[in-house]
Design goal:
This protein has one domain: Pnp Oxidase, Chain A (Roll). The chain contains 2 helices and 12 strands, in the order βββββαβαββββββ. Keywords: Oxidoreductase.
Length: 155
């Protein structure tokens, strides 16, 4: 599947041990009414236990200027939230990353074990959409092991 391009997201949540987050490229919209989205997480992920205990999470749809965050959240779990200047907590407790063009706060609606992954279905309870120029940048894409920014056809 690495030959199929995908948008890059970071999923964050709160846990008893502190903030948890990981990069995910399996994000999809499922339903408008009710507003449902999904992503997959491997059963051997360092974040899986915290995810199973979570009631809510935040899905960040990264912009092309946020490759550094995608790489940070693909590293060792202890490094993901080490730089406290990159994030803050929502009033509901979930960590949220600064400068993300769009993020969605969701409640965990359903967890479905499928093969070696769990399909996470979240019900969207809040949408944050930046209006500033940096946030309006193109989305960050991942294809065949590399990050990309989209280029409109004909350019």
């Amino acid at each position: 599947m690495r030959r199929y391009p995908a948008g890059v997201t970071i999923v964050t949540l709160d846990s008893a041990a502190g903030p948890v987050g990981f990069t995910a490229t399996s994000f999809a919209s499922i339903s408008l009414d009710p507003p449902l989205v999904s992503f997959n997480i491997a059963h051997n992920s360092s974040s899986i236990k915290a995810l199973h205990a979570a009631d809510s999470l935040v899905i960040h749809l990264l912009g092309e200027h946020q490759q550094h965050l995608a790489q940070r959240f693909s590293r060792s779990a202890d490094q993901r939230f080490a730089d406290e200047s990159l994030w803050k907590r929502l009033d509901t407790g979930e960590p949220v990353l600064h400068g993300t063009p769009i993020w969605l706060r969701t409640t965990v609606h359903q967890l479905i074990p499928i093969g070696d992954h769990t399909l996470v279905i979240g019900m969207v309870t809040r949408v944050h959409d930046e209006d500033d120029a940096e946030a309006a940048a193109a989305p960050l894409l991942y294809h065949d092991g590399r990050y990309y920014r989209p280029t409109p056809l004909g350019e």
